[in-house]
Amino acid sequence: MTCRWHGQNHQLLQLHFLLVLLMAGRCSGGVTGQDKQPFCPLGQCINCMHCNGACLDDCSCYSSINVCCCGAPPGHYSRGYEKVPCPGGSYQNVTGQWRCEPCNTSGQLYDITYRGSIDLLDCYEARCESRGASQANYSQWQAENCRNSTFVETTMMSHPPSEAFCSAMTPAIKSRGCSWNDKTGVGRTAGVSSSLLLAMAVLVVPVVPDYR
Ligand SMILES: *[C@@H]1O[C@H](CO)[C@@H](O)[C@H](O)[C@H]1NC(C)=O
Ligand SMILES: *[C@@H]1O[C@H](CO)[C@@H](O)[C@H](O)[C@H]1NC(C)=O
Ligand SMILES: *[C@@H]1O[C@H](CO)[C@@H](O)[C@H](O)[C@H]1NC(C)=O
Ligand SMILES: *[C@@H]1O[C@H](CO)[C@@H](O)[C@H](O)[C@H]1NC(C)=O
User: Would you indicate the residue range of the signal peptide (predicted)?
Assistant: First the structure.
């Protein structure tokens, strides 16, 4: 079994998904880091199923709108929308988390553009002295790209979240994902959000997914 959607439903699926995303944007009050109603529960992301072994184990799927909320894969966190790869200097070795963990050595400088670390070995790879070895102007590169893990964690935990830090990332972290603070996401234990329920009520044309 794979977790691809059935091919012939693909365009309908996209249409539905777009509508749902539009509704999610409208119904959650401007989707900021302070969002009280994430689309999926914190730690889960929209249609981000990853298959290592059992495919949909970490997903709650709503077949009438072809949307699944799945646990963010290792190396990522999610604030209830897209999965976000951990910034360099942090890692996540557990599925379904709403933040990343700081790398183990706080005084070490890490290349924050080294994204998606899943363990401390990745942290080791992200060290600036190894990543920047080929830079023509190391000090300039270091000033722009290197931070310690304490800085990364403090910045992502700050209130309000640091939009400057998040938007400078490649790929940029959207403001609705720019936080590791679990207080900003009230929907964590509430299951699927009201915007998703509303979207389900409005979208009456059923498109049944077909896993094969
Ligand atoms: C994640 O990493 C931490 C720190 O190294 C370790 O204690 C923990 O057992 C790991 N968890 C998993 C699921 O690998
Ligand atoms: C981490 O970096 C911040 C500023 O970038 C600095 O103030 C702090 O002292 C550093 N922490 C450690 C443990 O090196
Ligand atoms: C950090 O983790 C790496 C990789 O597991 C390890 O080699 C290193 O000794 C650790 N550093 C500290 C200060 O715990
Ligand atoms: C590196 O960049 C910095 C800042 O732009 C500059 O001041 C310095 O002269 C540069 N060094 C070299 C060797 O080009």
Answer: 1-33
Question: Looking at the predicted structure, is the pLDDT value of residue 157 above 90?
Answer: yes
Q: What is the pLDDT of residues 32-49, one digit of tens each?
A: 444 467 899 999 999 998
For residue 94, the model assigns a pLDDT of 94
| Nearest-atom index, ligand 2, CA of 147 | 5
Q: Which atom of ligand 1 is nearest to the CA of 94?
A: 13
Centre of ligand 4 to C-alpha 141, Å, is 10
Long-range contacts of 199-206 (CB under 8 A, 24+ apart): 199/19, 199/20, 199/23, 199/24, 199/65, 200/62, 200/64, 200/65, 202/19, 202/23, 203/16, 203/19, 203/20, 203/64, 203/65, 205/12, 205/16, 206/63, 206/64
Q: Whose CA is nearest to atom 6 of ligand 3?
A: 120
CA of 118 to the centre of ligand 3 (A): 14
**95-134 CB burial, b ≥16 within 10 A, e <16:** bbbbbbbbbebeebbbbbebbbbbeeebbeebbbeebbee
pLDDT for residue 81 is more than 90: yes
Distance from Cα 186 to the centre of ligand 3, integer Å: 35
